């Protein structure tokens, strides 16, 4: 029985130590944003001539797929680190009484980072959506891209839910941004799914 109390205390302490600060969460999101932005020139380089090179592991698609897999991996790491984090910049009673809209700098930093991620990632996806029309005669491209985009979608959905739970005061805005990104992801997936 005494061991259970000690173990519970250790478990609670390790959970508390695992919590990320708002700035650490914002930095994690910014890392994903940078990875997404770094893929934009590669996506822009897609042409009818180089798309088929995917068959021999060359051209723009292998680095794009690798880059998206890196985004998935980085996102999953951040999601696992968020497990110990509670709501950011939760208002105390005095602060709540003074200002019902108080958000706090950490919450704002995370929200801004998420909003920037959405904008950058949508720009990348819109490039891919635009290029999909060029690739209708190159069926080997569609399935690998659609598959990796589904993995990205899973990470984005989970990350968005976690951010909504962390940023209670920004929940509506985060939900709106996440829904917008999800719509763009769905369109990109459907475009590449239809390349057969």
UniProtKB/TrEMBL annotation:
It comes from the Eukaryota. Residues 1-18 form the signal peptide. The keyword Signal applies. Keywords: Signal. This is UVI-1. It comes from Xylaria arbuscula. The lineage of its organism: Eukaryota, Fungi, Dikarya, Ascomycota, Pezizomycotina.
